[in-house]
Amino acid sequence: MSAAVTVIGAGLAGCEAAWQVAENGFSVELIEMKPLKYTPAHQSPDFAELICSNSLKAARVESAAGLLKEEMRRLGSLLMSCADTCRVPAGGALAVDRHLFSAAVTKRIREHPNITVRTEEVTSLPKEGLVIVATGPLTEGPLADEIFALCGGKLSFFDAAAPIVTAESLNYDRCFAASRYDHGEDSAYLNCPMNKEEYEAFYEALIHAERAPVHDFDVQNPKVYEGCMPVEVMGQRGHDTLRYGPLKPVGLRDPRTGHRPWAVVQLRREDRDGTLYNLVGFQTNLRFPEQKRVFGMIPGLEHAEFVRYGVMHRNTFLNSPGFLGADYAVLKRPDLFFAGQITGVEGYMESASSGLMAGKNAVCRLRGLDPVILPEQTMIGALSRHVAESVSRDFQPMGANFGVLPPLTQSIRDKQERYAALAQRGLQALEPTLQRLKEEGIR
Predict the structure, then answer these.
(1) Residue 233 main-chain phi, psi, to 5 deg
(2) Are 36 and 119 in contact (CB under 8 A)?
(3) 131 near 335, Cβ under 8 Å?
(4) Could you tell me the pLDDT band of residue 220, with boundaries at 50, 70 and 90?
(5) CA 138 to CA 428: how far, in whole Å?
(6) 118-133 burial, b for 16+ CB within 10 Å, e for fewer?
């Protein structure tokens, strides 16, 4: 007997979608091409693989990313359950041991009695049945051609990942452990301080370093998503751009000098045991030997061992407004859903949240119920409206931010108080939907 729902792709969105359907008693066939075939960005055979960072952004519910994650928790998210279990110290962020996280998601999916996993590369959309497409931003080949013909065109941008180094190869005489303003655990970050001369030498080497070629896109003028801007591209915007960006020294004091450094490179723990560190904000497209040379100029990284160099790859997303509804279903084919970054949401948990909603809405369709569309005051609801209703001529991926929410009725000048009020309003707005799901027996 065929499955009630077919989910294509076992990334974060696909796993979340499959879980939501399966938890509500319907059979799911989850099709994943790994390990038969890998994209240029993937390395692990496990599901829900994290690529460019192990950080799932801010943890505080009073932040946009924190509000999104709390909404997901309350909606029964598999990914949030696994993330909370695999958490590693990261100050005010929720970061995970990426290998434990993927392994945990894979185990939960494979052990679910209602989910059947099939290893296969899908080259065309199924013509029948309820389908959720979560093939990710590196979708290519005949499947991509069919999808983009269906939606009337595609949009693309380049995404970049940061390098990872081993903890044992760092020079601890030059770096120190601390979080900004002493927030969070001291072990969350290592800081590599630079004086003015060291920064200027590093800056000149960085902006003149040789870059790797990019493919499958307009290499003369590629769109690069701001949230993953290569550090060398950011540096070319101005001499002090990095000092006001990822290398900002505010909130930190070098214990060797007692003063704030001129610039600071932060390293964030990549795994639970603290054996690996990620160069925060150092997404890059430099050639691998250039990364070793230039990043080796950072104090503390003189002899760093790189277990992964930074890479840059093409991300592709749908021209979703007018094609997808706020339930993530295709308007002209309501039995076909899309989820993940391919829809025009940006970020790990944003992608997972779209899978969560696509899965719940697939359940509603199977049960003959109205779709679940969250209020625009919630972060998940606001992102789904961006995907479905954006009026921008230049539709671009959107991550969680308070700017996508409708303004408060009262004016609050203090930013932190305003953010707290927006978060409180969002969680209150979610309650009627949670009650409705409970009454209708949807988990």
Answers:
(1) -70, -45
(2) yes
(3) yes
(4) very low
(5) 36
(6) eeeebeeebeeebbbb
Rounded CA gap, 181 and 111, in Å? 43
Dist CA 309 CA 293 (whole Å): 12
**How far, in whole angstroms, is CA 300 from its chain's centroid?**
28
Q: Which helix (H) or strand (E) covers residue 14, if one does? A: helix 12-23
- The yes or no reply on domain 164-310 and CATH 2.30.30 is no
CA 347: distance to chain centroid?
3
Two structure tokens written together for 188: 């969350």
- Mean pLDDT (the chain, rounded): 91
Class of domain 5-155+316-436 (CATH, top level): alpha beta
Q: Where are the alpha helices (DSSP H) in 296-441?
A: 348-367, 379-389, 415-439
C-alpha angle with apex 162: 160 to 164, nearest 5 degrees?
150
Q: Where in the chain is the domain with CATH 3.50.50.60?
A: 5-155+316-436
- Band of residue 100 on the pLDDT scale cut at 50, 70, 90: very high
